[in-house]
Amino acid sequence: xxxxxxxxxxxxxxxxxxxxxxxxxxxxxxxxxxxxxxxxxxxxxxxxxxxxxxxxxxxxxxxxxxxxxxxxxxxxxxxxxxxxxxxxxxxxxxxxxxxxxxxxxxxxxxxxxxxxxxxxxxxxxxxxxxxxxxxxxxxxxxxxxxxxxxxxxxxxxxxxxxxxxxxxxxxxxxxxxxxxxxxxxxxxxxxxxxxxxxxxxxxxxxxxxxxxxxxxxxxxxxxxxxxxxxxxxxxxxxxxxxxxxxxxxxxxxxxxxxxx
Length: 260
Hints:
By secondary structure, this protein is an alpha+beta fold. Among the domains are: 126 residues, CATH 2.40.50.90; 53 residues, no CATH class. The protein is 31% helix and 17% strand. The strands form three sheets. The protein has a six-stranded mixed sheet, with helices on one face.
């Protein structure tokens, strides 16, 4: 049976055409947006989901405080202030870092700041496999305590600040690395001034006599006190080690309240 067709007016055909094109356009945009969001989400997941937990191969070393891992990602070692190109001890610092990490796998850890002004990731760096012959697992600490680098001025990154500050102080006091080879090194940090930590002259006399800079007077700390390990002795300030508590009290020191 023949199908009867009603002839459509030009305006009607034009309207139908526009509606069809609009519908096709919406479908295309929705499809594109969905695909684009999916790709972005997947890419983001690959970069952030396990980025801090997994190991990363070190492809190259740029200088004494910057390395390159996979995908040409640059890692700037947090709080490490190594000499720049042309400065004293630049080559030694770069070679030391390369010898430790180049071609090896590392783990990285973020603190408060994620990137610097150059777009480099700011991270603490650890060797994935500890070397039993060297205390070099924590690369940031190793470079500072062995005099290959100084310490950056105070920042909001605090997790390992005390450890790195102590490492800097000891390297500087003992004139290690750049502290003996270079005339100009790290500028003093007014918020964290250099503080001596003199060792005992007699291994049997290890009670620490400390003179407080905060007005608490002269106190002594036998081993086992809550603050014993954190207490430093600076001979130049009149602080000392004592063999027994009677000797400390005779010198005018009183037992710290945290020890009672």
